[in-house]
Amino acid sequence: MIKAIIAFLVKVFYQLASPKHFYRIAGKLIPWFGWFAAVLLIAGSIDGLFIAPVDYQQGDSYRIIFIHVPAAWMSMFIYMVMATSGAIALIWKIKLADVIASSSAPIGAAFTFLALVTGSIWGKPMWGTWWVWDARLTSELILLFLYLGYMALESAIEDPRAAARACAILAIVGVVNIPIIHYSVEWWNTLHQGATVSKMDKPSIHLSMLIPLLLMAVGFKLYYAAAVLSRARNKVLLTEQNRTWVKEVVGLESGVKHG
Amino acid sequence: MFKVFLSLIKRDLRLAFRHKSEILNPLFFFVIVVTLFPLGISPDKQILAEIGPGIIWVAALLASMLSLESLFRSDFDDGTLEFMLLSEYPLSIMVLAKIVVHWLITGFPIIIISPLLGTVMFLSNDAITTLMITLLLGTPILSLIGAIGMALVVALKRGGMLLSLLVLPLYIPVLIFSSNAVGSSMAGLAISGQLYFLAAFMVFCLTLAPIATSAALRVSLE
Amino acid sequence: MINKEVGLAVKSLTCERGYRELFNDLNFELLPGEILHIKGENGAGKTSLLRIIAGLALPVSGQISFAGYDCRKYRSEYNEQLAFVGHKLGIKLELSPVENIQSYCELGNSCTPQDIFNVLSKVGLYGFEEMYCNQLSAGQKRRVALAQVILSDTKLWILDEPFTSLDVEGIEYFLKRIQQHVEQGGMVLLTTHQEVNLSNCTIKYLQLPSGDMNA
């Protein structure tokens, strides 16, 4: 009985992972993810910018955390996704996992960059300078380097399949190292700075601030889902260009008849 | 299996001694980079002692990274790397042998010359001892992590810049703990925590880096 | 007679370079005592095919088995039976022919110094044994690489353009060695623009589809 269920699940999984089915299903999912993301992001922004109370220490300038913190979460999350799907692609030879990993990289890099920029904008009123070697910002900066290395490696290797496999190895090595890097940066930071102003570490955040934060976080996640699926759809068409189903799809969507 | 390990070490050492520049160039680079800082900043004793540990370690990092080419480049170009992949022995053993040789010809000379550089940077005797210990623990890590990066870029024509982008972020923990240990021992503080971290990180890399490197080599040779 | 299981079997192999398909659903078998001569235009994927069979490259899909075992799963056992010469010779220029062959042997089958000197004199490198390989000509380096194959005690030889830069005598000698290997139950897979004329040998041909972009 259990065996049958597992066999069924494996079958469903492989079917979903087949590029053709993925292309179709992703096409249906993207609008849903996209619209929900838009709704949540708008609601979260209104809530965060206008409804959430003013912070008694930082005034209104703290409101940038509603972008900064979810972006920083996403930057870590997406790297995990890349490493996990890289591992899946290496172990089970599922091509789709490679596609997901490489489609995620630019989005992850963009979130990391966003976290860095908002962090430094936030730092200006708080610390009086655009940049402070604070543990969180430094870790984000190193994470950005990891993303850039990943994308540089991907674009440097000409054969797309070799590039995907090389990048999968790099992402796994990176993800193993991230906790170590993170720990050492934290440690270095406490030694050198003593007590800096680190507002977000304490869980004492008020519910009225937490709600917009979570709205924005879920909105970002859904946006990522929509973005990665639509990038992945394009990549699937590119990598599968020799298959007949792609020729049919492209023929249909562009309205050109293939003779 | 151990025989193939030893014979590769022997072969690579023989090759390195026929190409002495491979041993000497990273060493000269290391010395020159350190020399630039007093010229660029100030010959002031206090300032140099303050920044010395970091500078020496950054220079060691760069010297090790720039010498990574010697790890697989020539084997890739002449095709002996293919034979290693086609051997019946595990690739990670052979990779480890090559990493050991890389450390012997780049890391080890750096350790030997480091007291000299510590002296010109006005480090205390204790700090110089610590510097040598951190180099002893840290440079193998640089070779091990660097091997992964080099294996990923070995098939690329101009992999040098890319290599630094891949490898340097991963070197950061070594830099932080090592230079901090040297700085702390200057100030007479305890350094055992940093050394334990370095030792643990080295063992960690020693177990995993050869496997990752061999996987990367198989991809690169495709 | 011949056990069907001990040969090399290639099943529904597909290979792409970039996004371009080189060949699709390729099937063939090679039995002990046979030579397979792979033909095809430049860019048809001859080298890619040989590298895939040697296990150096990954096919898009398909299976390769040797003696009934999947080559990817039993890599070490397969490698034990395999000798490969590609475009890159695997010769270290800073080492002498003897040292080169010695380090090659240490990666797999063992051989004595006596064996090495013997094979070097047979391939016409008598007197060059201790010279650095960067002083040898292209043809002589090729001879060193082929000497390694001859010395290796393996069943399957995969030779990618083995006769490049060899002179007429050299080609003749190596053809003879190939024949000898096949007569002893070995298998040879090769690409060459040379005609391979060997009496008493089963030579199969495999024509790869042309690399025409519009096909």
Structure description:
The complex is a heterotrimer of chains A (259), B (222) and C (215). Chain A has 259 residues and is mostly helical. Chain A has a domain at 54-194. Helices cover 81% and strands 0% of the residues of chain A. The longest helix of chain A is centred in the C-terminal third of the chain and has 34 residues, at 160-193. Chain B has one domain. In chain B, helix 3 runs antiparallel to helix 6 (91-120), helix 6 (91-120) packs across helix 9 and helix 7 (125-153) packs antiparallel against helix 8. The model of chain B has no long low-confidence stretch (mean pLDDT 92). In chain C, helix 4 (113-122) packs across helix 5 (138-151). The mean pLDDT of chain C is 84. Classes of the chains: A mainly alpha (259), B mainly alpha (222), C alpha/beta (215). Chains in contact: A-B, A-C, B-C. The A-B interface holds A 90, 142, 145-146, 148-149, 152-153, 156-157, 159, 161-162, 165-166, 169-170, 172-174, 176-177, 180-181, 183-185, 187-188, 191 and B 148, 152-153, 155-156, 159, 162, 165-166, 168-170, 172-173, 176-177, 180, 197, 201, 208, 212, 215-216, 219-220, 222.
| Structure class of chain A | mainly alpha
Summed up, the helix count of chain C is: 6
- Strand order across the biggest sheet of chain C? 6-7-8-3-9
What is the radius of gyration of chain A computed over CA atoms, rounded to a whole number of angstroms? 21 Å
Strand content of chain C: 25-35%
What gap, in angstroms, lies between the N and C termini of chain C? Answer: 42 Å
Shape of chain A: globular
Q: Care to give the gist of this entry?
A:
The complex is a heterotrimer of chains A (259), B (222) and C (215). Chain A is mainly alpha-helical and 259 residues long.
Topology:
The complex is a heterotrimer of chains A (259), B (222) and C (215).
Chain A: H1 2-17, H2 19-51, H3 65-92, H4 95-127, H5 135-156, H6 160-193, H7 207-239, H8 244-254
Helix pairs in contact in A: 2-7, 3-4, 3-6, 3-7, 4-5, 4-6, 4-7, 5-6
Chain B: H1 2-18, H2 21-40, H3 45-66, H4 69-78, H5 80-85, H6 91-120, H7 125-153, H8 160-186, H9 192-220
Helix pairs in contact in B: 1-6, 2-3, 2-6, 3-6, 3-7, 3-8, 6-7, 6-9, 7-8, 7-9, 8-9
Chain C: E1 8-17, E2 20-30, E3 34-39, H1 46-54, E4 61-66, E5 69-70, H2 75-80, E6 82-85, H3 97-106, H4 113-122, H5 138-151, E7 156-160, H6 168-183, E8 187-191, E9 202-207
Parallel strand pairs in C: 3-8, 3-9, 6-7, 7-8
Antiparallel strand pairs in C: 1-2, 1-4, 4-5
